[in-house]
Amino acid sequence: MTFDDAYEWLQANSMECARLASLAELAAWDQRTYIPKKGHAHRAEQLEMLARLIHARATDPRIGECLDVAERDCPADPLLPQAVNLRMWRRAFDREVKIPASLAAALAGTAARAESAWETAKGSGDFNGFRPLLAEMISLTAQKADCLSTGHERYDALLDEYEPGATAAGIETVFCALRGPLMKLTADIAAQGRGAELPASTYPLFAQRQLCAELVAAIGYDLQAGRIDETVHPFTIGIGPGDVRITTRYTEDSPTPGLFGCLHEAGHALYDQGLDSVYWGTPMGSAVSLGIHESQSRLWENLVGRSAAFWRWAFPRAAAAFDGLRAVPESAFVRAVNGVRPGFVRVEADEVTYNLHVLLRFELERSLFRGDLTVADLQGAWNEKMQAYLGLVPRHPGEGVLQDVHWSAGLFGYFPTYTLGNLYAAQLFAAADSAVGPLEEQFARGEFGPLLDWLRKHVHLHGQRFTAEELITRATGAPPSQEAFISYLTRKYTDLYALDKNRS
User: Fold this and answer.
1) Has 265 been annotated as catalytic?
2) pTM score
3) Residue range 168-503, CATH number
4) Catalytic residue from among 25, 265, 351, 469
């Protein structure tokens, strides 16, 4: 077998796995949006079957044989597409062969059942009724972690799936650096009293849908290659080239959950739409990590979407859409959507307190997989940590331990990537501003192309050519750190709340 023969087979197999995975993604999207209530059991069986098929192809012994041949004549330059694909195919294969097919299928089937059960439990606040499925999901995920373990703690194996190379100890160091400054900034802002709020009003859903579509199209989301739907918990899902879908949730009491949910998910979608379609189905056409993915969603939601400059352009559109905003000054609106008020719900949290929500989940997940915390004690532990970090105690499980879909889907180790994404986003934004800015002057004119083009060139089109750390270092000139993020938050909220003036 020649190099070309081996590489061609590996590429074809990779694309076949990707097509099967895209069918699973489509089925999952339907289950979270439009499936009839009585269709969930059958959908779980479908997803379990697809998981078995994908696992069988991802662990085909011929992959190892072809990798052995191709790696002998691998291009010397590690940045060439063939070298990148071979390197990442090897990583994926070495991981997948450690997971039994029965476990892969059980994880997929249980996740499908648990997600549906979670939606019901969240609405009713019935954590006790959901506990058995959650315990099963944790048990299966622990088995997976044990299969993938390299001798360190279980949580490292789970983190590595979403942020390759990350460790629990490394994430703990990140939070140690963030906890103090974030809690101090929160306290300083709280001392100024309650900030501006949007007026009580009705914000019609049809107007929210129209405005959201206009805003995400303006920042670059291609609605001819995607769509916006509604769900209990917002998400983005890449079905394939030309089909990247986003969801959000609307409430008539306020326009902000729908608006910022759309901007957040559109950030994810811009990344997926910006990957090189020539390489779809291979590592070169895939995102490098969830931390980098989250950097795109958090950047567009917050550094763009919550900026005063963005609303100089967008506020007239919002005021025209909603009667409740027509008497609101633009400056008051900007202050309201940047209000810092500890709350129960992570996806609606402000930029300052958001990472405290993530810290809470990271510590709970780590304790669960260390065996220091049981599912029976999870609700109480959640409430204690929320009291410690945010000064709040959930009134019911729906705004506490049941608020996120992630655990029902088995996405343990995912949450820390939100905080990594915030750090990466601040660094990337500062670098882009230096290169093609001033960005805020462009936002005020409704011009978002220069920022998106810069991100396409420095992030999206590289696929998995670099690790997350390498990508950030190359794009910004410095390795990832919390400095840009803390500087951004301090500067922004000192100005918004006149903290220096009030201290003097």
Assistant:
1) yes
2) 0.93
3) 1.10.1370.30
4) 265
